[in-house]
From TrEMBL:
One of its GO terms (biological process) is DNA integration. PROSITE patterns: CB, TYR_RECOMBINASE. This is Site-specific integrase. It comes from the Bacteria. It comes from Chryseobacterium muglaense.
Length: 274
């Protein structure tokens, strides 16, 4: 059995999510390919440092991805060989503070309007209208949709947390048309053979919708989630409710959406004008 298979097995036993497992294995595959000629058991701190230096210089990786690479390597060697690497000196000293990117409501409505495919239109509407992550959208099952109470059950989301989100009234007629045309069997959005849609396919759906709407920036499903939170903040929704809707463990994570929306900028007066 290959190391990657054994590592996957250990991660599954530890109840890591499938998306997390894929991310770890993809990151480690790139790492081990780059150090071809060095046995996996012989990798040391210097090997990791050289690889990381190359990634920073050649690919200009972000600080968060740098931390992810280090975390992946540390976890692999701890799980596979009970070996602890001393890599603390390779973690970035400065923390990046990037504000979440988001779209205006008008831009999103244009994306939805110009998307003719009912399935794709429904996906975009729920990503924005419910603030869902891609993994949450593709894992939605028909039984999770409660049109009577106007809510959706998001089961075993990130962090293994269940939660409810609102089902927008404006989306209900669209979903009914979608059901009549596609007859999904288990998952709300299915690809071939009644299997759930892939996250990559959803990303392509969103990208194409943004191109049709002539939005001059890269739009991802997560930007629709950021837009959901930002627009709720602008409408005066209590941040604690937004925290629950997004499934954040800490309100501190949600707080980034308060820094700074267009509305708050417009409301603040310069000392010169007071």
């Amino acid at each position: 059995m290959k190391y990657s298979q054994i590592f996957r097995q250990k991660l599954e036993i530890a109840r890591y999510s499938e998306s997390t497992i894929k991310t770890y294995i993809s990151t480690l595959t790139s790492f081990f390919k780059s150090i071809d000629g060095i046995a996996i058991e012989e990798v040391n701190e210097t090997t990791v440092e050289k690889y990381l230096y190359g990634e920073i210089k050649e690919k200009n990786i972000s600080q968060s991805f740098q931390k992810h690479i280090l975390g992946s390597i540390k976890l692999f060697y701890e799980m596979m060989f009970s070996r602890k690497f001393s890599l603390s000196h390779l973690y970035p000293k400065r923390v990046e503070h990037q504000l979440p990117k988001y779209l205006s409501k008008e831009e999103i409505l244009k994306m939805i309007e110009l998307t003719e495919n009912l399935k794709h239109k429904s996906m975009i509407s729920l990503l924005y209208g419910c603030g869902l992550r891609v993994s949450e959208l593709i894992n939605l099952k028909i039984i999770d949709i409660d049109s009577k109470s106007g809510r959706i059950s998001v089961i075993q989301a990130k962090g293994k947390k269940d939660r409810y989100v609102m089902l927008p009234k404006s989306v209900l007629p669209l979903l009914r048309k979608y059901f009549e045309k596609y007859f999904p069997q288990t998952y709300l959005f299915e690809g071939g053979k009644n299997e759930k849609y892939s996250s990559r396919s959803v990303q392509q759906v969103v990208k194409q919708a943004a191109l049709k709407a002539k939005i001059q920036k890269l739009v991802t499903p997560h930007i629709l989630r950021h837009s959901f939170a930002t627009h709720l903040i602008e409408n005066g929704t209590d941040i604690r409710y937004i925290q629950e809707l997004l499934g954040h463990n800490s309100v501190m994570t949600t707080q980034i959406y308060t820094h700074i929306t267009d509305l708050t900028i417009r409301k603040i007066q310069s000392p010169l004008d007071i």
